[in-house]
Design brief:
- The chain is 68% helix and 0% strand.
- Helix 2 crosses helix 3.
- The protein is mainly alpha-helical.
- The termini are far apart.
């Protein structure tokens, strides 16, 4: 049985920055010199959430990356006629979670014919 090495302040700072940002545990482990399991354990102890297992963290990361609230990001996608599925995929969450986060009014305001549906319709007409 090996003894666990204590975490240094710089290692904890790396964990605090990279884990919620979505960096895989193995990559963080390589940076800080701990095993991926120890990275996950320390993250749990510190109350950190990984975006792959926490939709709220994925949404927060998207808001930070775009510099605006999710509703504003959604309106941009809607106005560019991009699908809700595209937005959900870009954030890294499911459509059901996105619907809950946006609210019914914004969800229902999406156009029926998004760019993906328009392109598919054109492909079908050409094939026929």
């Amino acid at each position: 049985m090996s003894l666990r090495r204590d975490w240094t302040c710089p290692e904890v700072a790396i964990l605090d920055r990279d884990y919620p940002a979505g960096l895989p545990s193995a990559e963080i482990a390589a940076k800080v010199g701990h095993s991926p399991g120890e990275v996950q354990r320390k993250a749990r102890e510190r109350g950190l959430r990984h975006p792959s297992s926490c939709s709220a963290q994925a949404i927060a990361n998207a808001e930070q990356a775009h510099g605006k609230a999710l509703a504003e990001i959604a309106r941009d996608y809607r106005d560019r006629r991009l699908s809700r599925a595209t937005l959900a995929g870009d954030i890294g969450i499911g459509a059901k979670t996105l619907r809950e986060a946006l609210g019914e009014e914004l969800w229902q305001s999406w156009p029926v014919m998004t760019l993906g549906r328009i392109d598919e319709s054109r492909r079908r007409r050409k094939a026929a």
